[in-house]
Specification:
The complex is a heterotrimer. Chain B is mostly helical. Chain B is built from 13 helices and no strands. The two termini of chain C are 19 Å apart. The model of chain C has no long low-confidence stretch (mean pLDDT 87). Classes of the chains: A alpha/beta, B mainly alpha, C mainly alpha.
């Protein structure tokens, strides 16, 4: 670690954040001094966003300390974050959005200075941006790229004090190359003038270009922290990867049936095949799956047999019906199968659910208990049971193993293999490389497009990482 | 300003202009000082009530008690404010504070505003009956003369509508605090993240709704000179319709005070227009519903076009 | 103590308490008359309440504000067609149900095709239904056919006929919610529409049938109420807007959707009537009655929310 003359803007010592049994951040020591530009890289679930949220005060640490050189909180220390999910008010104009986060604008006639400040910030970062600040256009009428530019500009704007540390989380994800270059140039100028930046990006070229130091996170810990020139691209990817003992049994090539699906993005699968979708989270995998599933099913018709079933990974948003018992949560997707005269056949329902409970190993003695009484892993098993109980030929899985313990995973892998052998096709999006390696074929997504198609022995963590991160030099 | 953002205010203006033109064509005599005064006479309390409803819709809630509340205010105005002005003012101030407290409670306990305000409508209605079991009371003299003032050239109703629109536009669209309030409707999380106490902002929005509800009730008594407990029950529906007609949306903090006042004028005019059409008054209420649906259909078409462009 | 954990028990307990308090005043006399009246008047609130409950079960933002207008319109048209002629009761019933069905279809068409929030869609539609009712009624008060009026005010096995209708409907709704595939779909949609859709539930069909059902129930309630009270009045539905939502909330259904409570609706319907008669017999005016009703509704919402906050 290079020595810093000046006091760090923020210093973390053994900072920890646990969510229940999950150690999202497991003791991180890091300091950011004026002039630093830290490139923060790591694979899905490495703890990047948790670390960011600890620094900006969005989360309180479970252990360790976080110190600022000015004041006690991130706001007074001049720490700003620009998030990947847009955090502007879509119904307000550019200047009005600045008003929300700028407390020291004058009461009367604040619009003019607000516009001037926004325009100055936008001009400084993105010369020739063409965003109509004076016209008071609402944010929702801007393009995604323009919104992201505004958000970045608000992050760097003085806002009555001064931005001293700006955290940029995937700031270039919706910017084109030319505008991204403008941002990188600004980051360099900002740091040269004594500001600090934490820069998170999947575009390794960008990280190499702007960062003075690169910090690699893995499993909630810093595994490497060196000056940028001490890293090579390959070394960086190696540092991010798991050092898993690679005893994954190489499956004997199985026989697959005819092609059963092909989507506009280029996703395809044959009968009995387990097809993986990989890449960094948020690069269009979940959207591709949802589009496919919604097109295969109807909001009006429900026939006895379905074409596809869905296993949700975001349980609260997409999966669990929270007021219901485990039993009802399992049976909802296959009620039509045993129904007579529109009434549910409750003994068949019970039998089916009990059968799946044993097959998939849901740990409960009573299926009429509320679904929320189960642990996350067992809730997930119930969602698997819900999908697999319906004999639909295609099973769509949207990162279904989030927060699931190792034992459960092994049970589910076996179940998926067995069902595939019976001729069901799986579309499996996963953020965990270990799971993707269970697949027969893998599509790697980057920026909403398929960047690589891997089969058989090509499916390695290294290849997936290489295809997930942009390897070209930032032009 | 882009072409699209103009639609939001263009559509309400257009609906009012078309309706007004049709009215004048049907009944040229309406195109006079007294004609206009007659047409828009009752628009002032409706416009104020619509602004009140807009404050609630601005923070993504809805107020089903507004009609009952305006009725209660009318009863208080026609009795206490007339007989013992100081006590009357104190009661009205307490009503506004109650509204603010409701807003804070709805936010703090995450209650469904629709049910809470529904319950409140019973309470307001009950108190109104208590104060004025049968129609009666009298308007304070100053209020009566304020509402029946005859300014030169332009009738009082128009002057009042323009004043209300201008003032609320300044308050909600131009001022800093108005911007933050709209921000609560747009993205409450980001407002909270910037360090604003959202609960106080919600209380403020509800308090403003209470204030404009009080003004609506007072204006109504100034026009009708007496009150009863059910005098303004239909304002609940009218005010919601007015906000929507004026280009407001149910969620996302997308409201327009000028639009809301225009929406209220449109609804008032729609009723008069039908009587000019010699259509039986049976259809007056229905016409308001039909206009609402028509305008919303037009807006859908506009926004689809806008999305394609 | 399993009974105490059922959310519907409270509305029944409240109804029983108010009943006892009212009877206490007359030291026990008039109890059966009071119960009979409560069952008669409660039946109308229960019928529209059951419909509103189905809509509210669909989840946040779903509510039918056109119930009063639909009641009035279907009652007016049914009475007009029957024209007080005997033997037309069945025809009238068909007309009333058809009007309700049509109103429900129109409501959902506005919601689905114009993508309007249900509140605005049913509100705008209700203005039109109201006008249609005024126009077709023309201020005339047509009496229901004699046999129909006798049925609506009559009794069977000691219970009012209208209560039998309301009870039958409640049992039917209960069976549908608890035992039918459609009921499961409705409950799933109300808990989490996205999750239900992803589990293969045809959510738009569920929504459409629900909005049609509530309007059909309103049509039936209007028909019965007009027959019961000797004709259709233009404001006959007015009190049922607040009533229909209040009985759902007091009955222990979740306002957030996905959890409905059929017995509670009946308990709450009886309670709402009994509160009024209790306050009447204690000499309280209409003002106090309303204040108390509103306070009860809000108190129940707050109680339900604090229960939710500490699971």
């Amino acid at each position: 670690m290079p020595d810093h003359e000046s006091r760090p803007i923020v210093a973390l010592a053994e900072a920890k954040k646990h969510f229940g049994p999950v150690r999202a951040l497991d003791g991180v020591t890091l300091s950011v001094a004026p002039g630093d530009c830290i490139g923060l890289v790591g694979h899905n679930g490495a703890g990047k966003s948790t670390l960011v949220n600890l620094i900006n005060g969005g989360l309180a640490p479970s252990g360790g300390t976080i110190r600022f050189d000015q004041g006690d909180d991130a706001l007074t220390a001049g720490v700003r974050s620009v998030f990947q999910e847009l955090s502007l008010c879509p119904n307000l104009s550019v200047a009005e959005n600045l008003r929300i986060s700028h407390s020291s604008l004058p009461r009367i006639g604040w619009r003019k200075p607000a516009r001037a400040e926004m325009l100055a910030s936008l001009d400084a970062i993105f010369p020739g941006h063409g965003i109509d600040v004076a016209g008071d256009v609402e944010i929702e009428r801007l393009t995604i790229a323009e919104r992201q530019m505004v958000e970045i500009a608000i992050g760097f704007a003085p806002r009555g004090s001064e931005a001293r540390l700006v955290i940029l989380d995937e700031p270039t994800s919706s910017l084109d190359a030319g505008i991204a270059d403008q941002l990188l140039a600004h980051v360099k100028r900002f740091c040269a003038a004594g500001g600090a930046v934490i820069f998170i990006s999947h575009m390794l070229g960008e990280v190499f270009e702007v960062a003075s130091r690169i910090v690699v996170l893995k499993d909630g810990r810093i595994v490497a922290e060196r000056a940028t020139q001490d890293f090579t691209r390959q070394g960086l990817i190696d540092a991010m990867g798991h050092m898993t003992s690679d005893d994954a049994s190489v499956e004997t090539a199985r026989q697959f049936g005819a092609e059963v699906l092909r989507t506009p993005e280029g996703l395809s699968a044959r009968q009995g095949e387990i097809v993986g979708l990989a890449g960094l989270a948020g690069h269009g995998q979940a959207a591709a799956l949802a589009r496919f599933y919604l097109a295969k099913t109807s909001t009006w018709r429900a026939s006895r047999t379905s074409d596809a079933v869905f296993v949700a990974g975001d349980r609260a948003r997409d999966g669990v019906l929270p007021l219901w018992s485990i039993l009802r949560n399992i049976s909802i997707a296959s009620l039509k199968l045993g129904a007579r005269a529109g009434l549910v056949d409750r003994s068949a329902e019970n039998e089916m659910a009990e059968g799946w409970k044993t097959r998939i190993g849901i740990r409960t003695d009573d299926l009429t208990r509320p679904i929320l009484s189960l642990s996350g892993g067992n809730q997930q098993k119930a969602l698997f049971a819900r999908a697999l109980a319906n004999p639909a030929p295609i099973v769509v899985m949207d990162d279904p193993m989030r927060g699931v313990d190792v034992g459960t995973k092994q049970d589910v892998y076996a179940m998926i293999r067995a069902e595939a052998a019976r001729g069901r096709t799986f579309l499996w999006y996963s953020t965990e490389t270990e799971e993707v390696c269970q697949c027969d074929r893998v599509f790697v997504f980057r920026n909403g497009e398929i960047s690589a198609e891997l089969t058989g022995t090509e499916i390695t963590e290294e290849n997936i990482l290489a295809a997930s991160f942009e390897m070209q030099e930032a032009s | 300003m882009t072409r699209l953002s103009r639609y939001r205010i263009l559509l309400p203006v257009l609906s009012l202009a078309i309706l007004l033109a049709a009215t004048f064509w049907m009944q040229p005599r309406a195109m006079s000082y007294f004609g206009l005064n007659l047409l828009f006479n009752l628009a002032v309390p409706i416009a104020l009530a619509t602004i009140a409803q807009m404050m609630i819709i601005m923070v993504n809630d809805i107020d089903l008690s507004l009609g009952a509340f305006v009725s209660l205010v009318a009863c208080v105005t026609a009795t206490f404010l007339h007989d013992t002005p100081l006590l009357g003012l104190a009661i009205l101030a307490a009503l506004i504070l109650t509204y603010a407290a409701l807003g804070a409670m709805i936010h703090a306990l995450d209650l469904p505003a629709i049910v809470v305000t529904l319950g409140m409508s019973f309470i307001w209605g009950g108190i109104a009956l208590f104060i004025l079991p049968s129609p009666g009371g009298a308007s304070p003299g100053w209020l009566r003369s304020l509402m029946t003032i005859k300014p030169p050239m332009i009738p009082m109703a128009i002057v009042a509508a323009i004043t209300i629109a201008a003032l609320t536009h300044l308050l909600i669209m131009r001022s800093g605090i108005g911007t933050v309030l709209r921000g609560v409707g747009g993205n409450a999380r980001s407002v909270a993240r910037a360090g604003w106490p959202v609960i106080r902002l919600k209380a403020l929005a509800y308090g403003l709704a209470g204030l404009f509800g009080v003004l609506a009730g007072m204006a109504l008594v100034g026009l009708t000179t007496s009150a009863d407990a059910n005098i303004a029950l239909r304002y609940t529906l009218l005010s919601i319709a007015g906000v929507i007609l004026g280009g407001g949306e149910f969620i996302g903090g997308k409201v327009s005070p000028v639009g809301a006042v225009i929406g209220a004028l449109t609804l008032t005019l729609a009723a008069s227009f039908l009587s000019f059409l010699r259509l039986s008054p049976d259809w007056q209420i229905g016409a308001q519903g039909a206009i609402l649906i028509l305008v919303l259909t037009a807006r859908l078409i506009f926004s689809r076009r806008g999305a394609e462009a | 103590m399993i009974l105490l954990r059922k959310p519907w028990i409270w509305s029944w307990a409240a109804a029983a308490l108010t009943f006892a308090l009212t009877i206490a005043l007359t030291s026990g006399r008039g109890g059966s008359e009071l119960a009979y009246a409560a069952l008669s008047f409660g039946a109308f609130a229960a019928i529209v309440g059951l419909g509103q409950m189905l809509v509210i079960t669909l989840g946040p933002g779903n509510v039918d504000l056109s119930i009063p207008a639909t009641m009035t319109l279907s009652a007016t048209l049914a009475l007009k067609v029957m024209a007080s002629e005997p033997g037309t009761a069945f025809l009238g019933l068909v007309i009333a149900l058809a009007v309700g069905f049509g109103a429900g279809l129109a409501n959902f068409a506005l919601i689905f095709l114009l993508r309007l929030p249900p509140i605005i869609a049913t509100l705008a539609a209700s203005l039109i239904y109201q006008s249609l009712a005024i126009w077709s009624n023309r201020g005339l008060r047509i009496k229901p056919p004699e046999p129909l009026a006798d049925f609506a005010t009559g009794r069977f096995l000691g219970l009012p006929n209208v209560a039998w209708v309301g009870l039958t409907l409640a049992v039917a709704v209960w069976i549908i919610l608890e035992r039918s595939v459609w009921g499961r779909w409705l409950l799933a949609t109300g808990q989490n529409m996205r999750a239900a859709r992803l589990a293969g539930v045809p959510v738009e069909r569920v929504r459409a049938t629900t909005y049609v059902t509530v309007a059909t129930f309103a049509g039936l309630a209007g028909y019965l109420l007009a027959s019961f009270s000797g004709g259709a009045a233009l404001n006959m539905g007015a009190e049922y807007l607040l009533m229909s939502i209040a009985v759902v909330v007091i009955g222990g259904s979740s306002i957030a959707g996905g959890d409905s409570n059929v017995p509670g609706v009946w308990g709450a319907a009886l309670f709402m009537f009994l509160v009024v008669s209790m306050l009447n017999s204690y000499g309280a005016g209409a003002g106090v009655r309303n204040v108390l009703t509103g306070t009860i509704v809000i108190a129940i919402v707050i109680a339900a929310s604090t229960r939710r906050l500490r699971p």
